[in-house]
What we know:
The chain is α/β, with parallel strands linked by helices. It has 19 helices and 7 strands. It is 50% helix and 7% strand. Strand 3 (101-106), helix 6 and strand 4 form a beta-alpha-beta unit.
Amino acid sequence: MANKNQTPLADRMRPKKLEHFFGQENIVGQGKMLRQAIESDSVPPMIFWGPPGSGKTTLAHIVAHSTNSDFVQISAVTSGVAELRQFITRAEQNKRLGQQTILFIDEIHRWNKSQQDALLPHVEKGTIVLIGATTENPSFEVRGALLSRCRVFVLERLGKEHIRSIIEQALSDKENGLGNLKLKISDKVKDLIADFSNGDARAALNVLEYAASLSKKISEENIKEAFQKSHLLYDKDGEEHYNIISALHKSMRGSDANAALYWLARMLEAGEDPLYVARRLVRFASEDIGLANSRALEQAVAAYQACSFIGMPECNVILAQVVVYMAKCKKSNDLYIAYGRAAKDVREQGNLAVPLHIRNAPTKLMKDLGYGKDYKYSPEHNYQEKQEYLPEELKNRKYLKD
Length: 402
């Protein structure tokens, strides 16, 4: 058995009972369904969805210590269908003996379609009670058929007061925590850890443990050194990526330059590809500004080119310039709406015939068939000619505002 001191503090401090669990009152508070299910040992198949360090794995471990079921934990990162078959065999044996099996799969979003499909029949038959944990939106990452058979519980990022309580508990616990070290740490430093941990209990405890290894007196400098790498929540392939780019887009649309700068910084400081941001600005220039200021597209394209020349970190101010410019521009979505209306007609009306008079006639046969007949050449009419350019079925259709 591993020495307790070799086990990370975050694992040692993992509570085994709900009364020692901080946060997530919205799902485990008194009278809440999940709390009742855990206390009555009748948990349904479920998915825990929440940011890192919010308590997903901890809740699964509380279930493990509260149930008479056989509890099995695997990680989707290191396990696959072969390991799953072994656990299903074990679960089938348990079922014959009248015992339930709970299978906890951490990071279930890491399993592909076929791996998740392999779970489905065993969840349907009740061979296992599935508990999955994911930081990604299960609507996108968990198969619909599997998701429909599970209750999804959404965990929120922990508040600073919860992180502070977790820190206090670790400092006072002499058996599993740091209570025997008699550390000197001020309330200001505790608050600093809570601020910097960004709602991630594991990050807070990891930093506390590292700082304690440096000195019995934990200073602000110790904490800042431990937090030298950013703990900003930003997964370039995950939901938060789309949340933040949406926030940038909507801030510019709402002409809030300060908010737009903040969301831009959130992406760039967390390592986002500046060319991705630049591409989104090119789109925004036409979608939300369009004909109200045609120079916006020029600015966006120039920003893309400049970012490709010099890269980060030098191009951050270039993107900042364009983001502020876009936010302050007069806005118009006329082009966006107009194109949507035209595309709707295309989808609904199908391949309508091009009017004969505006068809090209490169051959004699085409001319004989009437291609180009009676076409009015605009320059010869001072661009004032009256002529229909739409298919007959869409005659006089207006997509743009006059």
